[in-house]
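Quick note —
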Amino acid sequence: MSDNYDVGYGKPPQHTRFAKGTSGNPKGRPRGIRNFHTDLEEELSRPITVREGGRIKTISAQQALITRTVEKALQGDLRAIEMLVRWRTASDCTNADAASTLPLTADDMAIIDRCLAQRAAEGNQGNYGGNDA
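Predicted structure written out below.
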């Protein structure tokens, strides 16, 4: 061994190194493979037909999901109410410069507090089916 080259961590032998211009992962990620976010956005923007008040409308899957969740929340479904509050909070955080997003009022907070208190009371009585009380 006539080389004066140190071999060790981060210093592989010269003959085992990748040649210039050769990738260490030749197959790599195939082109055109989409990530979860891209697929989710495509599915949520897909048009679907719904019947609303006897009329047939075409709306996005995202609009249908939001409409259905609001309907359930108005019927008193606590999970739907929580979901809407989470969506609203996440929307406020991501759209900090959006003027159309209004903060929760004192009345809104009172409603949320009442719902959470009701949920906690139901959880203590064993009426709530979820694991998180």
